[in-house]
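Before relying on records like the one below, remember that each one covers exactly one chain. Contacts with other chains, cofactors or solvent are not represented anywhere in the record.
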Amino acid sequence: MDKIIFATGNQGKLREIRMILEGTGLEIISMKEAGVTGDIEENGTTFKENALIKAKAVCSMTGMPALADDSGLVIDALGGEPGIHSARYLGHDTSYDIKNNDLIRRLEGVPDEKRSARFVCAIACALPDGRTFTEEAAMEGRIGYEIRGENGFGYDPIFFLPEYGCTSAEISPEEKNRISHRGKALRAMRLRLLSILDEQQEGSL
């Protein structure tokens, strides 16, 4: 195993993933680079289910190892919205400026202590031999009162990190990878992948 497909078309995610998996010896390629086109229906009820659906579909289509993530923003005051529908909130093609402003508007008048939220990320790996693995992690914070920062993407500009006094779009990419939901889940998955690579190496001796 020297290549692994990451089931995303999101360039921001792809950059983060390549940074975190650097040094494993694996080349991370996108679905487009692997020649996979078309949408994969995500009809699971949890982040883990959706990640597994995508990873298994891409692995089945290509015969190659595949990684996929499903991640989203969970806001307690909104009953967990947008949750697994984060990417589709207000429509797939709606800009995140519009999505972020809408969430700020919906939380108007809600005090700091009730603006708690978390980013959740599930990473799934599907291998051609039928094995699958999942890892899940979260980053806690709260929803800010305005859009701030240029470093992140998606909901980062409204996700306030009290310990940093800024949003997750205002910290460096390196720091974000250290503390983020995706960074934590990917580091756990990285250990799994290294273990698989070790097994393969031992088997070839």
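The mean pLDDT is 91.
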